[in-house]
Specification:
Blueprint (H helix, E strand, L loop, with lengths): L3 H16 L23 H11 L12 H16 L3 E2 L6 E19 L4 E3 L6 E3 L6 E9 L20 E5 L5 H9 L4 E5 L15 E5 L1 H8 L3 H8 L6 E29 L10 E7 L5 E2 L2 E4 L6 H19 L6 E7 L7 H8 L8 E7 L6 H9 L5 E4 L12 E3 L6 H5 L9 H28 L27
Parallel strand pairs: 5-6, 6-7, 7-8, 10-13, 10-14, 14-15
Antiparallel strand pairs: 1-9, 2-3, 2-9, 4-8, 5-9, 9-13, 11-12, 12-16
Helix pairs in contact: 2-7, 2-11, 5-6, 7-11
Length: 477
């Protein structure tokens, strides 16, 4: 028992402190309870994710690289911080093997008696992801008529011309394979430079992308002549003024080590908890390709940042409410740039029964990749809901190639122009895109996982499924 005198001293001290405006005895505010109806996303957290994904030493998030491993460690640490449940044992990492082929570098030059003309990687030319390692020298250059079907290309119709020049739009993998089968040793694909990773090379074929201005220099003709010649006008074989030399070094790994990151927020309904809603995004990107620094504008990781933020908030929901009813799986794929290898690995060895998977919510899936992903999931009867990345809708080139600092100013002018936005502005747009995607993912989760098909009593005014949720009859974008 506290003596009366001591109690009085304490009381006077408290009252005196209150009279003096002492803040130490202020009544604490009631803690804010997270509410799925009105989620509060944290831009600083999204910014932190995006900065980590795109910092210099980890921006090379290509599948199977040290940079991706560092990014994966960050994502795993955040999922553990959010109290998600690892999908396998105590690890969020799910390892798999996949074929990979990455060009490490290349050289394209023309050597003559008077001088040597060298082309700049990332400005004039870029090795293609389907290129095999090898070196080719030629004094003649051939073209294949556009009217010729890919399976009919070659058959040794190009004697003395082992190098073929074609338009980049025609350089499909089956066409390149047909050319290689019929004796072609190297291909120059004319068009914009686009880093193009691939799971495997075309055996025995050196492949380089080349911009039209550089291609016109090789044939020593005007760009108009080059365009007409590629379209089938003029002789099929041209004699070059100097020896053309092509050399590509590629790293082909038939069974490269790769990983996905997967965590669970268990469901709480006694029956529906065995159902699964999969929320996923791509984590990989390109940092260096063919020895050239690449900034992947369309894959800055906004989708992955959005999924991380949704995971953070839903782990908080689960601590306050009997939610979600269905189990939510948060997955971050590698291998998206090489035929969606990570998603394929998941489908081959799913940690959850596919027949119990009710929806797949894919944040930031590129529009051109949607048909392939939808076909992969449809083969297993899985409905796909795509949450578009607003950055994909902006007028930005998909990749920014960083030319070497010693490239002359006039040569840089021929390279693809950079977008008229600063790095800071790009990050701000990526944060806004991540917030928009997090909102859209939440709308889908309210319907698919919180209380499927009904009302969710998580607040006094009772949370209802938003009107903008997709219809029940099937997946939509």
């Amino acid at each position: 028992m506290v003596p009366a005198r001591s109690f009085a001293v304490v009381l006077l001290a408290v009252l005196g402190c209150a009279g003096a405006g002492c803040a130490s005895v202020a009544v604490p505010e009631e803690p804010t309870v997270p509410n799925p109806a009105r989620p509060v996303w944290e831009p600083p957290a999204l910014l932190e994710h995006l900065r980590f994904f795109n910092q210099n030493d980890l921006s090379d998030r290509a599948t199977g690289t040290v940079g991706f491993a560092g990014t994966a460690a960050y994502v795993a640490a955040r999922m553990r911080e959010f109290r998600l449940q690892p999908v396998l044992g105590s690890s969020f990492r799910v390892l798999y093997q996949t074929p990979l082929n990455y060009p490490l570098g290349g050289v394209l030059s023309m050597s003559g008696a008077a001088d040597t003309l060298s082309f700049w990687m990332g400005v004039d030319v870029l090795p293609d992801g389907r290129s095999d390692s090898g070196a080719v020298a030629a004094t003649r250059l051939a073209r294949v008529s556009p009217e010729e079907a890919p399976g009919e290309a070659g058959g040794d119709p190009l004697p003395g011309a082992p190098v073929v020049m074609i338009e980049a739009t025609r350089a499909t993998t089956p066409y390149l394979e047909a050319l290689a089968r019929q004796g072609v040793q190297a291909v120059l694909a004319v068009g914009a430079l686009r880093p193009n990773p691939a799971p495997a090379p075309v055996d025995g074929l050196v492949v380089m992308q080349i911009v039209p201005e550089a291609a016109a220099q090789i044939v020593n003709r005007s760009p108009a002549f080059l365009e007409a010649w590629l379209a089938g006008v003029g002789p099929p074989v041209l004699a070059l003024r100097a020896t053309l030399q092509m050399h590509v070094v590629a790293d082909h790994q038939p069974l490269a080590g790769a990983m996905n990151l997967i965590g669970l927020q268990p469901g709480k309904h006694p029956r529906l908890a065995s159902d699964l809603v999969l929320v996923c995004a791509d984590l990989d990107a390109l940092g260096r390709f063919g020895g050239v620094g690449v900034f992947d504008v369309r894959h800055m990781g906004a989708g992955a940042a959005a999924v991380l933020e949704v995971a953070r908030l839903y782990s908080a929901f689960a601590r306050y409410w009997p939610l979600p009813e269905r189990t939510i799986m948060f997955a971050f794929w590698s291998g998206a740039r090489v035929g969606h290898a990570g998603l394929k690995a998941y489908l081959r060895n799913p940690p959850w029964l596919l027949e119990r998977t009710r929806a797949v919510i894919y944040a930031g899936l590129a529009p051109e990749e949607e048909p392939a992903v939808r076909a992969l999931l449809a083969a297993h009867g899985l409905p796909l809901y795509v949450v578009p990345d607003p950055l994909h809708e902006e007028d930005l080139p998909p990749f920014l190639l960083q030319p070497p600092p010693e490239v002359p100013r006039r040569a840089r002018a021929a390279a693809r122009p950079a977008p008229a936005v600063s790095g800071r502005m790009l990050v701000q747009r990526a944060v806004a895109a991540a917030q928009a995607m997090a909102d859209s993912v939440n709308v889908l989760l309210l319907r698919e996982a919180i209380r499927p098909g009904g009302v969710v009593p998580v607040s006094p005014d009772r949370l209802r499924i938003p009107a903008e949720a997709p219809p029940d009859e099937g997946p939509s974008r």
